[in-house]
Design a protein that fits this description.
247 residues, 2 domains, two-stranded antiparallel ribbon, 9 helices, 43% helix, elongated, binds zinc ion
Length: 247
Protein backbone atom coordinates (compact mmCIF):
# COMPACT_ATOMS: atom_id res chain seq x y z
CA UNK A 1 0.00 0.00 0.00
CA UNK A 2 1.28 3.49 -0.85
CA UNK A 3 1.88 5.55 2.25
CA UNK A 4 1.03 9.21 1.72
CA UNK A 5 2.69 11.98 3.71
CA UNK A 6 0.46 13.61 6.30
CA UNK A 7 -0.91 16.92 5.01
CA UNK A 8 -0.17 19.70 7.41
CA UNK A 9 -0.70 23.44 7.50
CA UNK A 10 2.04 24.86 5.29
CA UNK A 11 3.45 28.15 4.17
CA UNK A 12 1.77 29.37 1.01
CA UNK A 13 4.22 29.53 -1.84
CA UNK A 14 2.27 29.40 -5.08
CA UNK A 15 0.16 32.14 -6.62
CA UNK A 16 -3.30 32.07 -8.26
CA UNK A 17 -3.85 32.08 -12.02
CA UNK A 18 -5.12 35.57 -12.84
CA UNK A 19 -4.53 35.84 -16.60
CA UNK A 20 -8.28 36.23 -17.22
CA UNK A 21 -8.43 39.34 -15.02
CA UNK A 22 -7.76 42.90 -16.13
CA UNK A 23 -5.46 43.72 -13.21
CA UNK A 24 -4.56 47.15 -14.54
CA UNK A 25 -8.24 48.05 -14.47
CA UNK A 26 -8.58 46.81 -10.88
CA UNK A 27 -5.60 48.89 -9.69
CA UNK A 28 -6.97 51.94 -11.53
CA UNK A 29 -10.53 51.51 -10.19
CA UNK A 30 -9.17 50.88 -6.68
CA UNK A 31 -7.16 54.12 -6.81
CA UNK A 32 -10.14 56.08 -8.13
CA UNK A 33 -12.80 54.68 -5.80
CA UNK A 34 -10.81 53.97 -2.62
CA UNK A 35 -11.04 50.92 -0.37
CA UNK A 36 -14.85 50.84 -0.58
CA UNK A 37 -14.35 49.46 -4.09
CA UNK A 38 -13.25 46.11 -2.63
CA UNK A 39 -16.80 45.14 -1.64
CA UNK A 40 -18.47 46.39 -4.81
CA UNK A 41 -20.58 43.80 -6.60
CA UNK A 42 -21.10 45.55 -9.94
CA UNK A 43 -17.68 44.80 -11.45
CA UNK A 44 -17.15 41.38 -13.04
CA UNK A 45 -13.32 41.61 -12.97
CA UNK A 46 -13.39 42.44 -9.29
CA UNK A 47 -15.83 39.61 -8.51
CA UNK A 48 -13.70 37.11 -10.46
CA UNK A 49 -10.51 38.34 -8.78
CA UNK A 50 -11.97 37.87 -5.30
CA UNK A 51 -13.44 34.45 -6.14
CA UNK A 52 -10.23 33.11 -7.79
CA UNK A 53 -7.84 34.36 -5.09
CA UNK A 54 -10.09 33.27 -2.25
CA UNK A 55 -10.56 29.78 -3.70
CA UNK A 56 -6.86 29.51 -4.51
CA UNK A 57 -5.74 30.22 -0.97
CA UNK A 58 -8.49 28.03 0.46
CA UNK A 59 -6.85 25.10 -1.34
CA UNK A 60 -3.24 26.23 -0.87
CA UNK A 61 -3.82 26.58 2.86
CA UNK A 62 -5.19 23.04 3.12
CA UNK A 63 -8.65 24.47 3.81
CA UNK A 64 -7.41 26.17 6.96
CA UNK A 65 -7.49 29.71 8.27
CA UNK A 66 -4.17 31.43 7.59
CA UNK A 67 -3.86 32.51 11.25
CA UNK A 68 -5.59 30.08 13.62
CA UNK A 69 -5.46 27.08 11.25
CA UNK A 70 -8.99 25.91 12.04
CA UNK A 71 -10.64 24.14 9.13
CA UNK A 72 -12.86 26.52 7.13
CA UNK A 73 -16.01 25.65 5.22
CA UNK A 74 -15.72 25.33 1.45
CA UNK A 75 -18.65 27.73 1.01
CA UNK A 76 -16.87 30.95 0.05
CA UNK A 77 -19.44 33.04 1.91
CA UNK A 78 -18.35 31.49 5.19
CA UNK A 79 -14.72 32.65 5.21
CA UNK A 80 -12.89 35.84 4.26
CA UNK A 81 -10.28 37.00 1.80
CA UNK A 82 -8.04 38.81 4.23
CA UNK A 83 -5.66 41.75 3.65
CA UNK A 84 -2.61 41.02 5.81
CA UNK A 85 -1.63 44.70 5.80
CA UNK A 86 -5.03 46.34 6.11
CA UNK A 87 -6.32 47.98 2.93
CA UNK A 88 -7.35 51.09 4.90
CA UNK A 89 -4.21 53.19 4.70
CA UNK A 90 -2.61 50.88 2.11
CA UNK A 91 -5.23 50.85 -0.64
CA UNK A 92 -2.36 50.49 -3.12
CA UNK A 93 -1.89 46.93 -1.77
CA UNK A 94 -5.58 46.04 -2.19
CA UNK A 95 -4.91 43.73 -5.17
CA UNK A 96 -1.39 42.60 -4.20
CA UNK A 97 -1.74 38.82 -4.05
CA UNK A 98 1.10 38.43 -1.55
CA UNK A 99 -0.88 40.67 0.80
CA UNK A 100 -3.92 38.39 0.63
CA UNK A 101 -4.84 35.09 2.27
CA UNK A 102 -7.97 33.20 3.30
CA UNK A 103 -8.95 33.48 6.93
CA UNK A 104 -11.82 32.52 9.18
CA UNK A 105 -14.29 35.33 9.89
CA UNK A 106 -13.35 35.43 13.59
CA UNK A 107 -9.66 36.06 12.95
CA UNK A 108 -10.41 38.70 10.33
CA UNK A 109 -12.94 40.49 12.55
CA UNK A 110 -10.62 40.45 15.53
CA UNK A 111 -7.57 41.56 13.57
CA UNK A 112 -9.40 44.43 11.80
CA UNK A 113 -7.05 47.38 11.22
CA UNK A 114 -4.53 46.56 13.94
CA UNK A 115 -0.82 47.15 13.40
CA UNK A 116 0.99 44.15 11.86
CA UNK A 117 4.25 45.69 10.65
CA UNK A 118 7.43 46.22 12.65
CA UNK A 119 7.96 49.54 10.85
CA UNK A 120 4.89 51.49 9.70
CA UNK A 121 4.54 51.86 5.94
CA UNK A 122 3.00 54.54 3.75
CA UNK A 123 1.09 54.37 0.43
CA UNK A 124 3.56 53.78 -2.37
CA UNK A 125 6.09 51.93 -0.21
CA UNK A 126 6.97 48.48 -1.57
CA UNK A 127 5.30 45.49 0.07
CA UNK A 128 7.55 44.26 2.90
CA UNK A 129 8.47 40.71 1.81
CA UNK A 130 10.42 39.27 4.70
CA UNK A 131 9.15 37.47 7.77
CA UNK A 132 11.11 39.81 10.02
CA UNK A 133 9.14 42.79 8.67
CA UNK A 134 5.98 41.53 10.37
CA UNK A 135 4.85 41.36 13.99
CA UNK A 136 2.11 38.92 12.97
CA UNK A 137 2.57 35.41 11.61
CA UNK A 138 2.63 35.99 7.86
CA UNK A 139 0.85 33.29 5.84
CA UNK A 140 3.39 33.53 3.00
CA UNK A 141 6.64 34.08 4.84
CA UNK A 142 6.21 32.04 8.03
CA UNK A 143 5.54 28.39 8.80
CA UNK A 144 2.42 28.06 10.94
CA UNK A 145 3.81 25.05 12.80
CA UNK A 146 6.94 27.00 13.81
CA UNK A 147 4.78 29.38 15.81
CA UNK A 148 1.71 27.37 16.86
CA UNK A 149 0.51 23.90 17.70
CA UNK A 150 -2.75 22.30 18.81
CA UNK A 151 -2.78 20.73 22.27
CA UNK A 152 -4.59 17.47 22.98
CA UNK A 153 -7.84 19.36 23.61
CA UNK A 154 -7.58 20.95 20.14
CA UNK A 155 -6.72 24.32 21.64
CA UNK A 156 -4.44 26.61 19.65
CA UNK A 157 -1.22 27.19 21.57
CA UNK A 158 1.61 29.58 20.63
CA UNK A 159 4.97 27.84 20.75
CA UNK A 160 7.17 28.88 23.67
CA UNK A 161 9.58 31.65 22.66
CA UNK A 162 7.57 32.53 19.53
CA UNK A 163 6.84 36.26 19.80
CA UNK A 164 4.89 36.10 16.55
CA UNK A 165 2.81 33.21 17.89
CA UNK A 166 1.94 35.13 21.07
CA UNK A 167 1.27 38.36 19.13
CA UNK A 168 -0.96 36.68 16.53
CA UNK A 169 -2.78 34.73 19.26
CA UNK A 170 -3.65 37.98 21.01
CA UNK A 171 -4.39 39.97 17.83
CA UNK A 172 -6.86 37.37 16.59
CA UNK A 173 -8.42 36.78 20.05
CA UNK A 174 -7.77 33.04 19.90
CA UNK A 175 -8.06 32.73 23.67
CA UNK A 176 -11.83 33.04 23.48
CA UNK A 177 -12.06 30.21 20.98
CA UNK A 178 -9.92 27.98 23.15
CA UNK A 179 -12.18 28.63 26.12
CA UNK A 180 -15.34 27.98 24.13
CA UNK A 181 -13.79 24.77 22.78
CA UNK A 182 -13.52 23.43 26.34
CA UNK A 183 -17.26 23.95 26.76
CA UNK A 184 -17.84 21.42 23.95
CA UNK A 185 -16.89 18.64 26.39
CA UNK A 186 -20.05 19.40 28.36
CA UNK A 187 -22.37 18.77 25.42
CA UNK A 188 -26.03 19.66 25.08
CA UNK A 189 -27.96 20.87 27.16
CA UNK A 190 -25.19 21.90 29.58
CA UNK A 191 -22.88 23.45 26.98
CA UNK A 192 -24.27 27.03 26.95
CA UNK A 193 -24.09 27.29 30.75
CA UNK A 194 -20.57 25.81 30.76
CA UNK A 195 -19.54 28.29 28.06
CA UNK A 196 -20.80 31.26 30.08
CA UNK A 197 -19.02 30.09 33.24
CA UNK A 198 -15.78 29.35 31.38
CA UNK A 199 -15.70 32.77 29.69
CA UNK A 200 -16.21 34.41 33.09
CA UNK A 201 -13.58 32.22 34.71
CA UNK A 202 -10.89 33.19 32.24
CA UNK A 203 -11.84 36.86 32.24
CA UNK A 204 -8.95 38.94 33.66
CA UNK A 205 -11.38 41.07 35.71
CA UNK A 206 -13.02 38.10 37.43
CA UNK A 207 -13.26 38.26 41.23
CA UNK A 208 -15.41 35.17 41.81
CA UNK A 209 -13.26 32.39 40.41
CA UNK A 210 -13.57 29.99 43.37
CA UNK A 211 -17.35 30.26 43.30
CA UNK A 212 -17.49 29.75 39.55
CA UNK A 213 -15.10 26.81 39.62
CA UNK A 214 -17.45 25.13 42.08
CA UNK A 215 -20.40 25.86 39.79
CA UNK A 216 -18.50 24.34 36.85
CA UNK A 217 -17.60 21.27 38.90
CA UNK A 218 -21.23 20.78 39.93
CA UNK A 219 -22.32 21.12 36.30
CA UNK A 220 -19.71 18.60 35.15
CA UNK A 221 -20.78 16.06 37.76
CA UNK A 222 -24.49 16.52 37.07
CA UNK A 223 -23.93 16.23 33.31
CA UNK A 224 -22.53 12.72 33.82
CA UNK A 225 -19.76 13.10 31.23
CA UNK A 226 -16.31 12.01 32.47
CA UNK A 227 -14.69 14.29 29.86
CA UNK A 228 -16.43 17.28 31.40
CA UNK A 229 -15.08 16.37 34.85
CA UNK A 230 -11.58 16.07 33.35
CA UNK A 231 -11.96 19.51 31.76
CA UNK A 232 -12.65 21.05 35.17
CA UNK A 233 -9.23 19.73 36.28
CA UNK A 234 -7.60 21.39 33.25
CA UNK A 235 -9.37 24.67 34.01
CA UNK A 236 -8.28 24.53 37.67
CA UNK A 237 -4.66 24.14 36.57
CA UNK A 238 -4.96 26.98 34.04
CA UNK A 239 -6.50 29.32 36.60
CA UNK A 240 -3.89 28.44 39.24
CA UNK A 241 -1.15 29.15 36.68
CA UNK A 242 -2.72 32.48 35.68
CA UNK A 243 -3.06 33.54 39.32
CA UNK A 244 0.51 32.54 40.14
CA UNK A 245 1.72 34.71 37.24
CA UNK A 246 -0.22 37.66 38.62
CA UNK A 247 1.21 37.43 42.15
ZN1 LIG B 1 -8.79 31.95 12.09
Amino acid sequence: MIKLPKLSRQRIIDEPELSSIDLEWLYFAGCMCGTGYWGWDQDDDLKRFRAIVKGHFYSAQNRRCCYCSVEIDENRRLYDLEHIIDKNGRGDLMFEVKNLASSCVQCNLSKKTKKVLVVDSRPGDPLPEKSKDYLILHPHYDEWSSHFKFDKYERIVPRPNSKKGAFTFSLCSMDRRNIVRLADYFRHPHRPTAETILLDLYSPSNTKRAEQLNALKALAISSGYPDAVAIVGIVENDIALKESLLT
